[in-house]
Specification:
Blueprint (H helix, E strand, L loop, with lengths): L11 H9 L1 H6 L2 E2 L2 H4 L12 E4 L7 E3 L13 E10 L6 E9 L2 H14 L2 E6 L2 E9 L7 E12 L2 E12 L2 E10 L4 H17 L17 E5 L2 E8 L4 E5 L11 H7 L4 E5 L16 H14 L5 E6 L1 H12 L4 E7 L13 H8 L3 H8 L5 H11 L10 H15 L16 E6 L8 H9 L4 E5 L6 H4 L1 H12 L1
Parallel strand pairs: 1-4, 13-14, 13-15, 15-16, 16-17, 17-18
Antiparallel strand pairs: 2-4, 3-6, 4-5, 5-10, 6-7, 7-8, 8-9, 9-10, 11-12, 12-14
């Protein structure tokens, strides 16, 4: 699907104020000291794409009974702050406060106790009132561990989580915040915190690994027997190839979904034929031809037998891969898929026109059911975290549309042969899918021998992101 710039959906200034200035609101203090700056993380310590932003100049008004006993203007210590975002987007972002001087140890202990005692708090900043819930986090210790807590709140309709870690190391008091959509990944927070603790202790540290998010993974070009193919890869372990759908680029994948899978698998995402660095296959474009080009990428990257997960048109390509190149695959996950034997229940033309309009509101209404605006907004915020990429060429969209019609009508060779698929297969969709009636998933699961079927009640075409919390574990269990 087309991407949209939603960097203003959750204003970066407000998110950073909430994430990095809570300490100042709770503890006061005074900024100073180049020696502190040298022990803060800098942009050169962080993954590619992360850059420094101006920290909040004023602290928000933080209201909570748990903060009432904290001193507002403690004396005898100083602090320095640093704030960063990934690819200039509001989320994810990272903030650090480092303090030194007389009384820091006692002040930091009081701060940790106050945060641990909090279960809810209200933050007022720049006219916005944010009500957050707080729970304890289980993270490894960094130096002398004091507390780790998770704050959850909604801003501009998007669910946001801020993980806060308070500890002391090398005579310094350290306070870290990592903000992201939903719940930040604990492994990512741990990587940032370990790097911050090492630099505070020694004044230098090894850079944080680029493996923290797919949005920080570099764009690569593989030279294959079917031309160049653009891709990104993240994680380690058994390979898992993700194939996107109609009008989509590799940046159409919700980064939370990819990052979660990359904790157990080497995930590869790619651009289909004629999109963003991938060579256009010889006309006419067909699902079979896109499958052959994807097969060439598997060979060029020496992935061996790989699991493949396709979404929408990508699931048709995955079926064709399983028919034409079964020796390259281990398991197949088909999301919002369609049979290719001429029995497809086609979506209403009004829904297709809405999706093809390119208008954000209409596209999201086609992907997510009515009443799921928060899920849609969160998805838009997730895909906006990737570096900007050119739109899909209109000629490619037209060619994809014809390839899909051929599959639906049973004119594609692989589509007529999907009953021969002998690989373990999972078919999944949402019951409220407006672009792919769930009858198609039922028919496909019945067509492929031994296929498992899982339908998500109340979910739409983008069910895998709407119900990511339950779908990712289902995929992981199936791939074991």
């Amino acid at each position: 699907m087309r991407r949209y710039d939603v960097r203003q959906r959750a204003p970066a200034a407000l998110v950073l104020l909430v994430a990095t200035a809570i300490t100042l609101a709770a503890c006061g203090g005074s900024g100073a000291g180049s020696q502190l700056s040298r022990r803060l993380l800098s942009a050169t310590d962080l993954p590619a794409g992360w850059s420094a932003v101006t920290a909040a100049s004023t602290a928000p008004n933080t209201r909570g009974a748990c903060f009432a006993s904290l001193p507002r203007k403690p004396r005898g210590w100083t602090y320095q702050t640093a704030s960063f975002t990934d690819n200039g987007a509001a989320l994810p972002n990272f903030g650090e406060v480092l303090a030194s001087g007389r009384g820091v140890g006692a002040t930091w202990t009081r701060l940790a106790r106050a945060l641990t005692a909090c279960r809810a708090v209200q933050v007022v900043s720049h006219g916005a009132t944010i009500r957050a819930t707080i729970r304890k986090l289980a993270l490894p210790r960094f130096g002398k561990g004091l507390s780790a807590d998770a704050w959850r709140f909604s801003l501009a309709g998007v669910q946001i989580g801020v993980d806060l870690v308070v500890f002391r190391v090398g005579g310094y008091g350290a306070y870290l915040s990592y903000s992201d959509l939903g719940a930040p990944n604990a492994g990512t927070v741990t990587a940032f915190a370990r790097a911050a603790a090492a630099k505070a202790r020694r004044g230098s540290t090894a850079p944080v690994s680029n493996s923290v998010s797919i949005t920080s993974a570099p764009l690569r070009i593989a030279q294959t027997t079917r031309g160049a193919v653009a891709y990104r890869t993240l994680g380690s372990g058994p390979p898992l190839l993700l194939i996107t759908g109609y009008a989509g680029t590799m940046e159409s994948w919700d980064r939370r979904f990819v990052d979660a899978l990359a904790h157990q698998y080497r995930v590869v995402i790619l651009n289909n034929s004629g999109i963003g660095g991938t060579t256009a296959v010889r006309a006419p474009l067909t699902i079979d031809a896109m499958a052959d080009q994807t097969s060439a990428l598997i060979g060029a990257l020496h992935l061996g037998r790989t699991a493949v997960l396709g979404w929408s048109m990508g699931s048709m390509i995955a079926q064709a891969l399983a028919v034409r190149h079964p020796d390259q695959l281990s398991r197949v996950v088909l999301c919002a898929s369609y049979p290719g034997n001429g029995t497809t229940v086609q979506p209403a033309r009004a829904q297709l026109r809405a999706f093809e309009s390119g208008l954000r509101q209409k596209v999201m209404a086609a992907l997510f059911p009515t009443g799921q605006s928060a899920a849609a907004d969160t998805y838009l915020a997730a895909v906006s975290s990737y570096p900007p990429e050119p739109p899909v060429p209109e000629g490619v969209l037209s060619a994809q549309r014809k390839a899909i019609d051929s599959w639906w009508n049973g004119s594609d060779g692989a589509g007529r042969a999907v009953a021969r698929i002998a690989l373990p297969t999972l078919v999944a969709d949402g019951t409220e899918d407006r672009l792919d009636p769930s009858a198609n998933s039922r028919a496909l699961a019945a067509l492929i021998p031994g296929a498992q079927l899982h339908l998500y009640a109340g979910a739409g075409h983008a069910f895998l992101f709407q119900d990511e919390v339950s779908f990712v574990p289902l995929v992981e269990a199936f791939l074991r």
